[in-house]
UniProtKB/TrEMBL annotation:
Entry similarity comment: Belongs to the alpha-IPM synthase/homocitrate synthase family. Homocitrate synthase LYS20/LYS21 subfamily.
GO molecular function terms noted in the UniProt entry: homocitrate synthase activity; metal ion binding
PANTHER family in UniProt: HOMOCITRATE SYNTHASE, CYTOSOLIC ISOZYME-RELATED, HOMOCITRATE SYNTHASE-RELATED
NCBIfam families in UniProt: LysS_fung_arch
Name of the molecule in the record: homocitrate synthase
Top-level enzyme category: transferase
Cofactors (names): Mn(2+); Mg(2+)
CDD domains attached to this UniProt entry: DRE_TIM_HCS (cd07948)
Residues of the Pyruvate carboxyltransferase domain: 18-271
GO BP terms in the entry: lysine biosynthetic process via aminoadipic acid
Record's GO cellular component terms: mitochondrion
Length: 434
């Protein structure tokens, strides 16, 4: 495995000890093309549970009758993961959700000046009163409760900390920080979480939108600062540009705490989980998706290919085998190096008849053809390799015939024997180099 330079940590860091709250069935339902029917929700919930997430967050049962019914159906699955319902800080929402069988409720209310002015219109004093009522009701029902501000990073810091201190004293299980518009950067996240860690004794949950591309980095910074729970969605789907992607977060944490990640999560199921969600919302898994994208472990440049063939850690910080993904060394292009061609020759079982000079000659031909025709497919590269071998065999037959005085019939027999050997070699495994 590769050696990774890891930032020094302190006693607050939770990089190797945190919980994932997957919100694909809540935040993910807010994705532009999402419309999950009941069976799809159940399938996604089972897949998330099998993968190993700690919590599954679902849409507020107060949102619609179908949402309530679907929530109840998920609760009846008997999953290992806890099921949380996401609700507004409103007593009616809490009453409806508490009757569905969920393990806990995730309560949220906007705290920024913008949201207090243009959304719910409540003062901070009113928010404190309403939060107290809702939290105490949820606790009376014996349910886990998280209380979160919305638009935390554009909220007044004094107001925010006063609110968190108040709900912490009420005994909530977690307080939540939400970068609702994706405006925060990792340094801001670290500072706010570390400040909050000194204010409350309960757990800290974080929720990061990806409008400016910082969702993964922000989640990781939150863990370093002491956050205990991270919200994710499969493929990062969600409102607008979505939130921290499940696979991307685990890839990042893997580089610092590989044993923790590989021991807790069924990483080999990530591709199937993402394919399930992608199909449900009608999108393709992006080519550059973390870990499972079609290009994630494709090596092309000559110097890269040579090094990777010798030791994959030279150009990989993630081990694709841990995620059930295949590494590929591309060889049919103008950047091909002869070491990559040699690896393919070896795979075809032709190493005994193609030496280094031969590999370099085949490489020259591949580059020349790729310059004119574009990237060549694997079958075409194999064809060029076989053509080279056949030419070599023909030359040997001609030279041998001249020296030994063999008849033309004998020469033909030798050539046919050579072609037969070549055909056998072509059936060798081809999965590692394309």
């Amino acid at each position: 495995m590769p050696t990774v330079l890891v930032r020094p940590t302190d006693s607050f860091s939770r990089v190797s000890n945190f919980a994932i709250i997957d919100s694909t069935l809540r935040e993910g339902e807010q994705f532009a093309t999402a419309h999950f029917d009941t069976q799809t929700k159940l399938a996604i919930a089972r897949a998330l549970d099998d993968f190993g997430v700690d919590y599954i967050e679902v849409t507020s049962p107060a949102a619609s009758e179908q949402s309530r019914s679907d929530c109840e159906a998920i609760c009846r699955l008997g999953l290992r993961a806890k099921v949380l319902a996401h609700i507004r800080c409103h007593i009616d929402d809490a009453r409806i959700a508490a009757d569905t069988g969920v393990d806990g409720l995730s309560v949220v209310i906007g705290t920024s000046h913008l949201l207090r002015t243009y959304s719910h219109g409540k003062s901070m004093a009113a928010i404190l009163d309403q939060a107290t009522q809702v939290i105490q009701y949820i606790q009376s029902r014996g349910l886990e409760v998280r209380f979160s501000s919305e638009d935390s990073f554009r909220s007044d810091l004094v107001d925010l900390m006063s609110l968190y201190r108040h709900v912490d004293r009420l005994g909530v299980n977690r307080v939540g920080i939400a970068d609702t518009v994706g405006c925060a950067d990792p340094r801001q996240v670290y500072d706010l979480v570390r400040t909050l860690r000194g204010i409350v004794s309960c757990d800290i949950e974080t929720h990061f939108h990806d409008d400016t591309g910082c969702a993964i980095a922000n989640a990781y910074a939150a863990l370093e600062a002491g956050a205990t729970h991270i919200d994710t969605c499969v493929l990062g789907i969600g409102e607008r540009n979505g939130i921290t992607p499940l696979g991307g977060l685990l890839a990042r944490v893997y580089t610092a705490a590989r044993d923790y990640v590989t021991g807790k999560y069924q990483l080999r199921q990530l591709g199937a989980l993402e394919a399930l969600v992608a199909k449900a919302v009608g999108i393709q898994v992006p080519f550059n998706n973390y870990v499972t994208g079609s290009a994630s472990f494709v090596h092309k440049a000559g110097i890269h290919s040579k090094a990777v063939l010798n030791n994959p850690a030279t150009y990989e910080v993630l081990n694709p085998e841990d995620f059930g993904v295949t590494r590929t060394v591309a060889i049919g292009h103008r950047l091909t190096g002869w070491n990559a061609i040699k690896a393919r020759v070896d795979m075809l079982g032709l190493a005994s008849v193609v030496d280094e000079a031969g590999c370099k000659e085949i490489t020259r031909v591949v580059k020349e053809r790729a310059d004119c025709e574009g990237t060549l497919g694997l079958e075409k590269v194999d064809e060029l390799i076989r053509e080279f071998v056949e030419r070599q065999q023909q030359q040997r037959v001609i030279v041998g015939s001249a020296k030994a005085g063999l008849s033309s019939v004998d020469s033909a027999a030798c050539l046919l024997a050579g072609e037969s050997a070549t055909a056998s070699a072509a059936s060798m495994p081809t999965s590692a180099v394309v």
